[in-house]
Amino acid sequence: MGKFIIDGGHKISGEIDVQGAKNAVLPILAATVLADGASEIHNCPSLRDVDKTDQVLEGLGCTVSRGDHTVTVDAGGIKCCRICEELMREMRSSIVFLGAIIARCKEAVVSMPGGCPIGLRPIDLHLKALRALGIDISEEHGYIKCRADRIKGADIHLDFPSVGATENIMLAAVTADGVTTIQNAAREPEIIDLGLFLRAMGADIRGIGTSVITIKGADKLHGAAYTIMPDRIVAATYLAAAAATGGSITLKKANPRDMGAMLHVLREMGADIRCVGDTITLTSPERLKSVHTIKTMPYPGFPTDIQSPFMALAALADGTSVFVENIFENRFQHVDELTRMGADIKVTDRSAVVRGVKQLSGANVVARELRGGAALIIAALAANGTTTINGTEFIDRGYENIESYLSACGAVIRRE
Ligand code: EPZ
Question: What is the pLDDT of residue 116?
């Protein structure tokens, strides 16, 4: 396990260009499979999950070339419709390839993605929707086998506005026969980014960003060039790093319009935040104030992915904050580790009661998943003394060169 060693107590201040969004680039790379030509994706973050997605594309027979924050994918030579078990287990979000592979190859075989540290991560909504599109799906021996000579447009109502299920339906429906509507679709900004890329490829897709998406099947799609949106979760993580250490930070290449719920909470905690175009400037208060209750919800509600980094903030705030995690059933694994650093947090079912303390102390802690690992970094930056965070592999899945960005803003952090 790789380690980050952090000497806490240094203000995080300076300027950071926000990386491209992991949760936009992954479905967009899957969408490149739909074209029989090349697509060029810009502002692509350098992340382990992107590397793994490139491996999936190459395994399907696509040609993938990487430049500086650019990935070019030529799906003209696609000849395989399988994603191996090892890759599916390493990156369960590859399930979003299902719709794209079936639409292009008329069949697909992927292993069940299985759960992950934050929850069981079922895919029942994905499979129910794909079956509604006329796709024959069998689940046997841990594999999902799909077949469809023609995908037929359908009216689909999602029981929950699942991001991945919405993406899978979009990818399967853009070249289907007829019209598909998705009711109760996810409204996340990453869905809009995928929709805009599909339009650039020639898709007829309306209502992206709303709860009702309408897709009129196109005969075929062509490759396109596209620039990925800024990563709103990474942006909020860096704002939190500054706020936790009494620093002031300016983020460039951000999109504050995607971050309303998160900026609202930071302002409630006493941070001064100014947004001008794609720039966000945060100035910390003397001491953060607690927030009465934070409930994670589908967009535009408070994002589950920033719950743990913001809990690290609340651990230092003046007063008591309550976090309710409504999206995933096991997303409080960072609590034990924050407690080792002196945080006062009590978890009951899906709620965590956080009583702010004046100071955290450095300790040896373990990251068990991506965003919980980010929470530990924030706590370590503010803590008194040195913290060792084991599990850089998790953090590298979503944060590009995090130690370089933080060092440039005053952190004393090294990777081992
Ligand atoms: C995406 O996961 C993101 N991942 C997650 O980010 C994010 O937390 C999540 O959306 C919610 O915003 C990517 O985009 C790669 P869901 P996804 O389907 O698509 C249940 C990160 O840290 N559900 O909206 O898996 C599910 O169990 C990651 O960057 C079903 O019950 O999220 C969960 O409780 C973590 N059946 C809820 O819906 C299904 O078929 C939300 O899941 C699908 C989902």
Answer: 84
Report the alpha-carbon distance of residue 342 to residue 383 in Å, rounded: 9
**116 catalytic residue (yes or no):** yes
Q: Which domains does the chain have, with CATH numbers?
A: 3-19+230-415 (3.65.10.10), 22-227 (3.65.10.10)
* pTM for this prediction: 0.98
371 lines ligand 1 (CB under 6 A): yes
Mean pLDDT by 10 residues, the chain (416 residues): 97 98 98 97 96 95 96 94 90 93 96 87 96 96 94 98 98 98 98 98 98 97 98 98 98 98 98 98 97 97 98 98 97 98 98 98 98 98 98 96 98 98
Catalytic residue among 116, 146, 275, 409: 116
Question: Which one, of 45, 44, 37, lies nearest residue 63 by Cα?
Answer: 37
Cα 92–Cα 174–Cα 190 angle in degrees, nearest 5: 50
Distance (Å) from CA 121 to ligand 1 centroid:
7
Token look-up 């966000």 returns 280
Q: In 158-252, which ranges are E strands? A: 179-183, 204-206, 212-216, 225-227, 248-252
Q: What is the spatial distance between Cα 380 and Cα 287, in angstroms, rounded to a whole number?
A: 17
